Amino acid sequence: MDIPILAAVDSGDTAWMLAATALVLLMTPALGLFYAGLVRAKNTLNTFMMCLAAVSVATVTWAAVGYSFAFDEGNGFIGGFGYAFLHGVTFEPRAGSTIPHLLFMAFQATFCIITVALVSGAVVERMRFSAFLVFAALWSVLVYAVLAHWAFGPGWLLHHGTLDFAGGVPVEMGSGFSALAAAIVVGARKDYGRQALLPHNAVYVLLGAGLLWFGWFGFNGGSGFSTGNSSVLAFTNTLLCPACTLVVWFALDAIRDRQVTAIGAATAIIVGCVLITPAGGFISPGWAMALGALGAVPSYTVLVWRPRTKVDETLDVLAAHGVAGLTGILFTGFFAQMAWNGVSDGLVYGDAGQLGWQVLAALAAPAYAFTVTFVLLRAIALVMPLRSTEREEAVGMDVVHHGEEAYATGEGAILVTPEAGLEAEVPLANPT
Amino acid sequence: MSVKLVIAIVRPEKANDVLEALYRAEVRGLSISRVQGHGGELDRVETYRGTTVKVGLADKVRFEIAVSEAFVEPTIAALCRGGQTGEVGDGKIFVVPLDRVIRIRTGETDHGAVTPVET
Prior knowledge:
heterodimer; A: mainly alpha; globular; B: two-stranded antiparallel ribbon
């Protein structure tokens, strides 16, 4: 950690960060829409609700201890209890920044929320909602807060100079490799590999991806915590990089199947945004475009390969976030450029050591995320069942866990009035 | 030879298993439609804000299969094999006689009309 320089609150920086925080929060309902479109109609609401569960649970755990574990001094591995229950988080700027500490906390909270929501993509259509709530609460503290401490807080990766602009370590690799562990522990859906399990609404998927991209301007553009050059660079790279991923994705789709697909395009937007997340404020616009184009290939490859395996990592969080985040972290180690970022050069610009620290992050974060998620879910499974029965899976999570349907018609629905109660005679065949 | 119409109402989540069982039984000509119905199942309760409802109709898939006499029993066996879970709500099979069957393309009738085209 650098020597703290206590600066005054800057009104311009604060104004932007207020807006950026709201933009990042929007990404979680957008992810809900994206995920809901990718599942079958009978699981629409449950899938969306997992994202809202993340908003609720992760906000509470973040305010309680998550923020403190991530951003309090503590040791290199995890922060202490100094900011527990937001103790001492006030209008004074955090050391080295020009925005109120309280706003910094809120901005970081939205990152924790979206990361928890991302992991749900691995277990939708069969995990019990109550088990997910417990998992979300514990995971947000034990995995997210720790990884955020390493990369953003005063943790060991930041200390050694690993470059991670907006969350390649905690958000992207953290969610992607945890998703793999979650899919393995929870197990495949009963119909996986036996029936075609298709997205039920591609328009939700496209709209969700579009709103995610929109929110990502706050996510990356806000990660400079100012209106300075690094924020402007990250913001602009968030336009350039995903656009190049889209172009290459179109080509890859066309080569594989002779047709450019809409759900492929939506996926490409996410992959492009993830690629630029760790690199945003560190590489030139030209290299951002190269990253978008080249980085499409590893994620595309994993995305095509994964469904041929027995691992039902349902919405491919590993391919879209884990692999793309890892690609972005490594790419930063090669092409970071002092002339653009004012911080550090990568291998290509003369600092081979930088690449070393990027490689270390790309090994440590996946290993930690995978291992702790694996053990955590096994531990929760000792206390409560993680997944619904086959019968419930067949009926669908919406009716089973929420008593609602996404596309209720009202046909055959009999109004239950408080006077008559549930025992009222149903005017239909009612065999004993 | 007489021709029968086999109508089966099955669970939507078992429709794929039924299709597979019919395919294995070499029953090739069929139509399906989504229907809603009520058997002996328990009604499920849903709540939307202040409104609570009992939903008495369950989603089902209806198969209609016209077969010649010799295929009736294999078709019924396949429908049972594919559609059964053992829980209330597995559905019903109805077998009804058909007066006439005509294949529109060729004008073939009855047995000829329900026999799959050799390819």
